[in-house]
């Protein structure tokens, strides 16, 4: 097919620069901290656009967390497992963002946390850290990456921090993990300890059971909390512990406690993001301590179903979702096509 002056048909639109002020930014409505200074951004004709720059609020450091603890102001922690969940947690102003090994179940569809490996954890830590400018980040040490020896633990922790770009690591276990916590902190890496219900050990604990319910159990928990503190942990997560015991342990420690299923007597709280936002299918089991603050599953389902219906009815894309061209170019094109 011989087209006349084909180059005339290829009149590219010059890349245009527009000012993206806070009002134009889709992030502005959810992130008041973004500020209103207009910044130039390029108009992109692609669906593969970056998600935006992390919000600028003061960086949360260990010192910030210690100050909150001293002031008795609760510390907020949430999990994130990828760039979007890290981004929204950061935008919501979380103090701490944990790339937990709950990743295994809620993002990778595994049965439990024992299956997730170090390389997978590192990949997800890296994607979350790209979204987080201010919150303090923690990467979970997966089962099998730290129990063999303190040396193994230091090597894994170094990889999580250097390759995963997070600011600290979390590991499960009490007094028996003290030498390991000491070795990691001596290597210059901040450690969050995790005691009480430790999901990586659920088989040996006889399932997902509340810990510290008996006097002996509560004493063991206190012993563990003191041991991880002495070993150098800067925070300890208490999971599935009676609230009275969690409060007493919190009062006995110099370091903050972060509770999950442990009542309000802890220095802060953590929840798994998909649990609290409701981003899971109906009928899924959720533990008693979870409060569901939203229903992201329903919102996503409604949006995707509406999209499906509009595509089937050829209502989407509407004219405003398409790229116009000059009438004379179109007519010329049609003339040329018809002639051949
Ligand atoms: O893996 C995880 O998400 C956790 C939190 C529940 C504390 O360890």
From TrEMBL:
Q: What catalytic reaction does the record list? A: (6R)-5,10-methylene-5,6,7,8-tetrahydrofolate + 3-methyl-2-oxobutanoate + H2O = 2-dehydropantoate + (6S)-5,6,7,8-tetrahydrofolate
Gene3D superfamilies in the record? Phosphoenolpyruvate-binding domains
Does the record's keyword annotation contain Methyltransferase? yes
In which pathway is this protein known to take part? Cofactor biosynthesis; (R)-pantothenate biosynthesis; (R)-pantoate from 3-methyl-2-oxobutanoate: step 1/2
SUPFAM superfamilies xrefs: Phosphoenolpyruvate/pyruvate domain
Task: Give a Gene Ontology cellular component term annotated to this protein.
Answer: mitochondrion
Q: Which UniProt keywords apply?
A: Methyltransferase, Pantothenate biosynthesis, Transferase
Write out the transmembrane intervals. Answer: none
Q: What is its EC number?
A: 2.1.2.11
The record, for InterPro entries, names:
Pantoate_hydroxy_MeTrfase (IPR003700), Pyrv/PenolPyrv_kinase-like_dom (IPR015813), Pyrv_kinase-like_dom_sf (IPR040442)
- One Pfam family, please name it: Pantoate_transf
Its GO biological process annotations read:
methylation; pantothenate biosynthetic process
Q: Which NCBIfam families match?
A: panB (TIGR00222), PRK00311.1 (NF001452)
Give the family, as the similarity comment puts it.
Belongs to the PanB family.
What PANTHER family does its record include? 3-METHYL-2-OXOBUTANOATE HYDROXYMETHYLTRANSFERASE
Q: What's the stated role of this polypeptide?
A: Catalyzes the reversible reaction in which hydroxymethyl group from 5,10-methylenetetrahydrofolate is transferred onto alpha-ketoisovalerate to form ketopantoate.
Listed name of the protein: 3-methyl-2-oxobutanoate hydroxymethyltransferase
Q: What is the lineage of its organism?
A: Eukaryota, Fungi, Dikarya, Ascomycota, Pezizomycotina
């Amino acid at each position: 097919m011989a087209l006349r002056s084909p180059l005339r048909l290829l009149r590219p639109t010059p890349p245009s620069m527009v000012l993206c002020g806070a009002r134009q930014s889709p992030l502005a409505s959810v992130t008041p901290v973004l500020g209103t200074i207009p910044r130039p951004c390029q108009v992109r004709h692609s669906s593969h656009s970056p998600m935006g720059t992390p919000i600028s609020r003061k960086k949360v450091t260990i010192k910030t967390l210690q100050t909150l603890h001293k002031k008795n102001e609760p510390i907020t922690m949430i999990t994130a497992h990828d760039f979007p969940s890290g981004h929204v947690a950061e935008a919501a102003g979380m103090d701490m963002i944990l790339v937990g090994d709950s990743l295994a179940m809620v993002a990778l569809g595994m049965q439990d946390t024992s299956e997730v490996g170090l390389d997978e954890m590192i990949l997800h830590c890296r994607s979350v850290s790209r979204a987080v400018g201010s919150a303090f980040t923690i990467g979970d040490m997966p089962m099998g990456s730290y129990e063999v020896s303190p040396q193994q633990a230091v090597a894994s922790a170094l990889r999580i921090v250097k390759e995963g770009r997070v600011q600290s690591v979390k590991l499960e276990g009490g007094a028996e993990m003290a030498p390991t916590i000491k070795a990691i902190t001596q290597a210059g890496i901040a450690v969050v300890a995790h005691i009480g219900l430790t999901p990586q050990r659920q088989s040996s604990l006889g399932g997902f059971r509340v810990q510290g319910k008996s006097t002996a159990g509560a004493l063991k928990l206190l012993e563990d909390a003191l041991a991880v503190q002495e070993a150098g942990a800067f925070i300890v997560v208490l999971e599935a512990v009676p609230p009275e015991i969690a409060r007493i342990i919190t009062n006995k420690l110099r370091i903050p406690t972060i509770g999950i299923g442990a009542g309000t007597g802890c220095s802060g709280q953590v929840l798994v993001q998909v649990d609290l936002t409701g981003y899971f299918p109906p009928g899924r089991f959720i533990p008693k301590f979870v409060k569901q603050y939203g229903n992201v599953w329903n919102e996503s389902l409604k949006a995707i179903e509406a999209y499906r219906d509009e595509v089937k009815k050829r209502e989407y894309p509407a004219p405003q979702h398409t790229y116009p061209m000059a009438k004379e170019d179109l007519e010329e094109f049609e003339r040329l096509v018809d002639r051949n």
